[in-house]
Amino acid sequence: MLTVDFDRLGIGPDTKVIDVGCGAGRHSFEAYRRGADIIAFDQDVTELADVAKMFEAMADAGEAPASARAEARVGDALALPFPDGTFDVVIASEILEHVPADEAAIAELVRVLKPGGALAVTVPRWLPEKVCWILSDEYHANEGGHIRIYQASALREKVEKRGMRFTHTHFAHALHSPFWWLKCAVGMENTKNPLVAGYHKLLVWDMMSRPLVTKAAEAALNPVIGKSVALYFEKPADVEKPRNPKSPSDASG
What we know:
Structural class: alpha/beta
Number of strands: 7
Largest sheet: 7 strands, mixed
Helix content: 25-40%
Distance between the termini: 29 Å
Strand order of the largest sheet: 3-2-1-4-5-7-6
Number of helices: 9
């Protein structure tokens, strides 16, 4: 289940990509399939070990071009261990809502991107996320959970003030919003609830089969209740200095 539009990012052979906060690796695997040199970057050692195993399995099965390179790297998004201007594309999908010092993380995403390169950032959309927070504290108030709800315009401004040029936005995963509302309403751990279990089966079927009926339904509903918002930026050849230089308060988010 991809949130980022890979065609818009132009990811293909010889593209150097980093997927920051890669989680289980869904975007990293797609970049690898397309022939990119991909670094899956996260602080979760256990999850990254599984990502590395999947990279190996994909290579063995011929699911990625032989010329492509894939690596799983453990580290901190606030201190990316790469020189300035390393990557053609930087992806940060569903990570910034977890990071207290989000502006410091954004500065790092921009720093490692090449001039002319593309940045894709996705976060939970304000309205679906707000409903989840109202229905359940358990949804977000836990270790490593969501610590803020973004207005897309506010996130765009945070990235633009690092000298980036906004290019596009879209919404995604509308069919997932009601699922999370149901989970929040009945209890996050109540997986045996028949409504939750039934809806989950529907989502799995949709992800595996991608029938036209659900694709059409999601496309129609995304502008209204899309669970995620994706924002795309380009790094100009001459990046302006940030309008609001980082202050000590940035460290607290």
